[in-house]
Amino acid sequence: MTQLVDLRSDTVTKPTAAMRAAMANAEVGDDVYSEDPTVVALEQRVAAMFGHEAALFAPSGSMANQIALQLVVPPAQELLCDANAHVVTYEFAAAAAIGGISSRTWPFAGGEIDVDLVASMIRPDGYWAVPTRAIAVEQTHNLGGGFVIGLDTLRGLRAAADSAGIALHCDGARIWHAHVATGVPFAEYGALFDTMSVCLSKGLGAPVGSLVVGSAEKIARARWIRKRMGGGMRQAGILAAAGLYALDHHVERLADDHRRAQRLAQALAPYGVVDPERVHTNLVVLDLAKTAVDAPALGAAARERGVLMSVLGPRTGRLITHLDADDAAVDHAIEVLTGILSA
Ligand SMILES: *Cc1c(COP(=O)(O)O)cnc(C)c1O
Description:
Layout: E1 5-6, H1 17-24, H2 37-49, E2 54-58, H3 61-72, E3 78-82, H4 86-89, H5 94-99, E4 102-106, H6 115-121, E5 132-138, H7 151-164, E6 167-172, H8 175-182, H9 186-190, E7 195-199, E8 210-214, H10 216-228, H11 237-249, H12 254-268, E9 283-287, H13 295-304, E10 307-308, E11 310-313, E12 316-320, H14 327-341
Parallel strand pairs: 1-10, 3-4, 3-5, 5-6, 6-7
Antiparallel strand pairs: 2-8, 7-8, 9-12, 11-12
Bound molecules: pyridoxal-5'-phosphate (PLP).
Pyridoxal-5'-phosphate binds at residues 60-62, 65, 86, 138, 142, 171, 173, 199, 202, 210.
């Protein structure tokens, strides 16, 4: 195989020819004036999918998260999330720098969230201690290996948030994967959250784009926050068209990615590096604690044989299946990785 099999991330996908055609043919206008019909159509469609009143197109998932956090947590108040959440791992203190938001984390157990623990961390309103204003969860969980949080857990968090009068935000960059893996309707997820961010450029294969989802009142404020952050875009319908195309054609096919991730996990399980039961969606986190090769060595050896993986730590690797990795690509990755692990 001469072509690289790139399993570092599901962000590496390139727009398909049909997606590019949809982009080329998009009707556009100036979206800062709310005059881009394709952006408006995408926003209305995504809002309706999740049973919310409105949505706002944003250039990245990080910006969508940060807009949402500013909607639910005022400056000098607090967000609760887990210690490996994207918002505190990959967003470079944006909540603090831009929103003046204090973040406090619960330990990341790599599995189901302890609702009682989170509820016990909520601090009440007051001038002597930072009040908690929102809880954020990630569905599916990136550093949790694509873990799907169960509905009962989410309902428990919703109840805890309600009884404290605070908000629940979902970083739903891969909420599509949770839906495909569990069959839980998008609207059922949507009903649990005050705000959501969803991403079109991960598994869905669009080149750019995320959305913030929420009430009409919140999204009106979100538009203002986005402009303040420099995220107002003009003829963005070119990008929104890719998102609409992805929603039509690339959601249900995520089942193929899940099947391929499971196949990778099954093939690698005999080497003691992954428990297939923990692979819920399209991410396969490799625990290389007990192998002869560490993560950088495995990554380098695989790269030499045309397979790219992420090295997340000295003994942690990650493989992600996606639109541009077919069965043959996954077969090749299995052959290369098992060859190195059994050497
Ligand atoms: C990728 C991702 C985001 C957004 O990332 P951007 O690169 O800013 O688009 C947010 N949350 C999670 C869980 C992600 O995996």
